Amino acid sequence: MTTSDLQIGQSYAYAVARIRQAENGLLDRNRIARILDASEMSEILRILGETEYSWAVSDVAATDYEAILTRELERVFRYVSQFVPDLTVVDLFRMKYDLHNCKVAFRALALGVDGSGLWSPLGTVSAAEIWRAATLEIGLDGFPKHARDLLGAGLDHLQLGVSGDTPADDSRLEQLADRPIDPQALDAVLDRAYFSSLDEAVYQIGSSLLTKLLRLRVDLVNMTAFLRCVRLRRGLAALRSAFIPFGDLPLELFEKLYNEPVETFVREMSMSMYDSLISEWSAFSKRKDAVAILERLGRRYFTEMCSASSAAVFFGPEPIASYLIAKENEINDLRTILVGKANGLDTESIRERLSGAYA
Asked: Is the pTM of this model over 0.85?
């Protein structure tokens, strides 16, 4: 533990105590089993009503499960923000929704469609403000730095670059109608800006453990991006565009493996810190949904690593981050269950798509 870690930890004693209590509200294996066995959506809502989701399910239609999950995550962010010493820790998780809203805004803008039904209310900046900036109605001054970087990256990619507080000429928007975009290239640009902002935010917090966890997350993202490029035969240029440079696994390694059989990828990764993850995934490596399986197993691996790393931390931001990661993973799995139930999937088919410890 560094001197910086020790100084940070001293201000987190109360916050960690509150988080340890909140962890008791996470859904356990038995509760998830009851939800999986439920035959009706109304029964699932009744079970959730016995938990911390009780407020989220009140006055919400059984079919509007996305609203339920969003309301619960809103509650959690508000709750943690009341006592965490540094709100940047919470913003680490809210920034991904700013990323989502930027992707929605720029795609809607470039494709000339209405993306209003896809906005998320969970970001650090309102979706309305992101849309106003993306459509050049306002400049970027006044936005938090990570939002300026996201918006600036998207505007530059679409050749609508604008700086300062002065909006660009609206006539440039009209040029988009005659210039097709590559949505994957746009996503890659925004993803890179997002992870760069995460890296800066983690550095600002000053936790060496959170830095290690960010590198782990980036490696998992790069592994799945690599396999997706290989499966879709998108070429090395697409791989280089999608690669996030903040992990421990270098781009050169993925370039070397690009034209090799999947067994070589498994062998190389088995010699890294991801041995246990890749060993579990290797049995599924020839399946059509192999990339999705690695993403799912990667989420579980990341959550378990976060939990193990923060378990012995009594004073620091790491337990806060670990709780929020576990909560998001829980919500992702609930979404998987609810979507599966709504589409008539059987229990075992849904269960194999879960990434939590109860899967």
From this structure: yes
